[in-house]
Structures are given as C-alpha cells and as structure tokens.
Design goal:
- By secondary structure, this protein is an alpha/beta fold.
- Helix content is 31%, strand content 23%.
- The protein has two domains: 288 residues, FAD/NAD(P)-binding domain (3-Layer(bba) Sandwich), CATH 3.50.50; 188 residues, 3-Layer(bba) Sandwich (FAD/NAD(P)-binding domain), CATH 3.50.50.60.
- Helix 12 runs parallel beside helix 15.
- It is globular, with a radius of gyration of 24 Å.
Length: 493
C-alpha cells in the first residue's frame, strides 16, 4: 500500500540531468508536447560531468559550437571552454525553456522493471538519501553517461599506499589541496593529464606527466582564421554567424577524421610534424609523443592555443615515459632505474565505465543482462521494450550523438501515438542470430574501453545492429530512416 501511495506517473521518464538529459527534455517539449515527463537526477544539481569534476582547469575536449545545444547557440568567441562556464551555460539553457522545473534532484534510480502485462516501466528510487519512491512510465530514457560517478578506474600502481605525500584523483579533487611550490607527478596521458599540466604548473614548483605510453596532443586555436572571417562577413546577423560557425565545426572535423581513417599513415606523419614543431629541443618526440596506434584509434587530446606545449617549453612542465616499478614513501621508482620525487601524485588513470548509472534492469522481475545484448541503431537495447540509451561519439562532440538519439526517439514516440502502439521492442531475426558477428560498440582501443567490454551492449556486423558511424548519417536516419526493421510494434487492444 505504501508503494502505491508514493507512485508517480509520467508518459516518459529521463534518468540523468547532464547534457543528454537536458537536450532530450528540450526535444520532448518541442516534438512531443502532449507527453508528460520528468528528469530524475541522483546528484544535487544538473550538469553531469561538469558538476562532478572540480580539478584545476577542467575544460571541454570538444568544441562548444557542437558540444553546446543546437537549439541554443554557444555565443562566446572561444571553441574550448572551462567547466564552470559550461555548467552555467547548461543551467541558463535549462531555465530558459523551463526544463529545470522538470528535474527532481537527489533521486537515485536503483532498479527499473518493465511489465509486459501493463506495458509500463516501474522505477524504484531512493529520494533525498533515504525515502523510497516508485515512478511509473510508458517510455524510459537512460541519459546517464557511461562512467561511474562514485568510483574511478582503479589502476594498479605498486606501492601507492606507501607514499607519504598527497595522492589525489581528478574525479574527486580535494578542494583544499595546496600545490603551491610542490613537485607534482601526474600519472596518465589522457585529456585530464594534458589539461592539468598547464593549469597546475604556474603555482607548482614543477609538474611531470608520467606515462606508460604516449597520446596524440594537438593544439587548437581558441578562434581560428575561418571563424574570424565568418564573424566579419556576418556582422549584420548573429543567427547566421552562429549557424555558419556551427556548420564549420560540423564539417571540418568530420572531413579530417574521415581522412585519418582512410589514410592513417599519412595522418600519423602530419600529426608527428605538428607535434615536433612545438616541442622544446630538450624533449624528443620519440618516445614521449610517438604513440603506437594511429590517430583516433584512441581519443586525440586537444589543448587550446598550445598551452600544454608552452608549459613544456617554459621548463615548468615535463614528460617522462616509463613503467612504474614501485612507489616508495618518498618517490616513484621506474623499471628503467629512473626515480621521481614528488610531493603530490595525481592518478589521472581514467574513468570506470558503468552502464546506466549502475541501475539494475529487469523484465517481469527477471534480470536483464546488458552485456549479452546487441544495440539497435546505437540507441535501443535488444529485447528491452520502450527504452533507449544515449551514447555519443568518440571522434566528435557527445551532444551530436545525444541529439541524433533524441530526435530519433521523439519521432518514434510520435509514430507510436499516431498508430496506437503501446510497445516497441528491438528483436534480431533468427537468421541474424545465426550469422551476425559481434563488433565493438565504441571504436576505441583505450584501456578503460577494453576493460568495460563485459559491461556494455554489443554492436553487430549487419543491418540495424551496426555501431554508430558519424553524425550526418545518424541525423539523416533520425529524420527519415527506417524505424521498422529490427523492431516489433505492438498495438494496444
């Protein structure tokens, strides 16, 4: 009886108030205004990644002209932005369209169960830390991102527990940590490490990136010559300026990544020359900036206006490539025999992948195993009715993939209403089950992605089950593509 009293009913429930959730909410209001919905957010505020991470200098690793919402242009004249400005932009955008009033904070979804008899999802939610509530909906949208907010990826660093200095992880940066005049070693070579080095160096005595293997680090101007030209030519129309700059950021990176995939060796040489030109004479490109993989096999790191390389040239920052033998109470000993003597160790070793925020899924109270299933169009999970999962791109802005998903699902829900359909379920045919081979969901060879293979759904080798490719194709599919094949449409009685 108590559960019935606290039951909250909606047509659609979105879980997660980050970029994906806010964008999905806007598309629902725009395309499906007849549907009631709410957003359940486990934390105290919207923003997702940009609310959680507080390390010095946190910034986007994609341009804001495409990472920002397509329905509210990013108006500042810099393509890379600090985390605080991004979250302000998100809050302003949500408030502008009343989306903030749809968010219920401190609502952690624990379980989501679908009833095939009632054609409804029931979500078990812990509200405000202890209160148990039940929410019910016709359609369930998982806008939770892809990593664990409570626990970072645990890297095996021998002896780290013996270190007598400070150890910090960027995901849980100590607000009171003072690194003034300290010797800092950042363990890791990804975007976080590349961001931290130039932001810690001005106050620190010295900052060293200690990497097992190198990454590609490319400089990106805050505002390039083409953007300046567009601004001059469209001085009379801000909407046109925003549209052209956004299309520039849609087109140029797309062409560049296609070139990289088609001619990987040539792209590798171009990257190498660009990196070599920015390095100080005392720091050789090989091995410190000569990755074993081709560009975009792992995420390429971008630094605004070359601040990372400027820090290296100034002597305040350095890079060391090697394998940690062990951490001692006062240092880090490498297998090469070299030893570092930091006051602070920052373990920028990556994110722990976690599907749907860790919530448990079930159908008629029978557990649903995500890792055993294929994903339809990169959006809906095999055999899981009336549900969608939002995932972005690895070589373009996350928001582009999130918006393609939102527009596709809004179109599907509109068609369901028109045809009096109560249930849509992705199903592979018997032939597909016999012949389809598994392919990676994410086209990355990064360690954290490989470790997450048993936690994520699978992409298929054919039909509607192929992995996502690129934005232009996906948005076209969202507008005009086939939404029948691979799906069962069940009409109401």
């Amino acid at each position: 009886m108590a559960a019935e009293k606290s039951l909250h009913e909606y047509d659609v429930i979105l879980v997660g108030a980050g970029i994906s959730g806010i964008n999905f909410a806007y598309r629902l209001q725009e395309r499906n205004p007849e549907l009631s919905f709410c957003i359940l957010e486990g934390r105290h505020e919207l923003g997702g990644t940009w609310s959680l991470f507080k390390y010095p200098g946190i910034r986007s690793d994609s341009d804001l002209y495409t990472f920002g919402f397509p329905w509210r242009p990013w108006e500042e004249q810099n393509s890379i932005a600090q985390g605080a400005r991004i979250i302000n932009y998100m809050k302003e955008s949500a408030a502008m369209y009343g989306i903030d009033k749809k968010i219920q904070y401190h609502h952690q979804v624990n379980n989501a169960n679908y009833s095939t008899s009632s054609k409804r999802w029931t979500l078990d939610v812990t509200a405000n830390g202890s209160e148990q509530r039940a929410f019910r909906c016709k359609f369930f949208l998982m806008c939770t991102g892809y990593y664990d907010y409570k626990e970072p990826l645990k890297a095996i660093i021998p002896g780290i527990e013996d270190f007598e200095g400070t150890v910090a992880h960027p995901q849980f940066w100590p607000e009171d940590m003072d690194y003034t005049d300290k010797n800092v070693v950042i363990v890791g070579s990804g975007a976080t490490a590349i961001t931290l080095l130039p932001n810690l160096a001005p106050k620190a005595s010295h900052v060293t990136i200690l990497q097992r293997s190198p990454s590609y680090v490319m400089s990106q101007p805050s505002e390039d010559k083409l953007e300046l030209l567009i601004r001059r030519m469209t001085w009379w129309s801000k909407p046109l300026e925003h549209r052209l700059i956004r299309w520039k950021w849609l087109l140029v990176p797309f062409l560049f990544t296609r070139f990289a995939y088609t001619f990987p060796k040539t792209c590798r040489k171009l990257f190498g020359k660009a990196i070599q030109a920015q390095l100080p004479p005392t720091l050789p490109r090989d091995p410190h900036f000569n990755p074993s993989y081709d560009p975009f096999e792992q995420r390429v790191c971008f630094c605004p206006d070359g601040d990372f390389y400027e820090c290296l040239r100034s002597g305040k920052g350095s890079v060391q490539t090697g394998v940690i033998e062990k951490v001692t109470p006062h240092g880090i000993k490498l297998t090469s025999g070299d030893e570092l003597h930091p006051d602070i160790i920052v373990t920028a070793t990556g994110l722990k992948v976690r599907f749907a925020g860790g919530m448990k899924l079930s159908i008629d109270d029978k557990p649903y195993n995500v890792a055993e299933k294929f994903i339809w169009k990169g959006v809906m999970l095999e055999d899981l009715p009336n549900a969608a999962f939002v995932i972005g791109y690895v070589d373009a802005s996350w928001t582009l993939g999130a918006d393609a998903t939102a527009q596709l699902m809004c179109r599907m829900m509109k068609q369901m209403r028109k045809e009096h359909v109560v249930e849509v379920v992705p199903r592979r045919s018997e032939a597909e089950k016999r012949t389809m081979t598994e392919e990676p969901l994410l086209r990355l060879t990064s360690t954290y992605v490989r470790k997450a293979k048993d936690m994520l759904p699978k992409a298929g080798s054919s039909g509607q089950w192929k992995a996502r490719s690129y934005y232009y194709k996906d948005i076209w599919m969202a507008w005009f593509g086939d939404i029948r094949s691979g799906l069962e449409w069940v009409r109401g009685v």
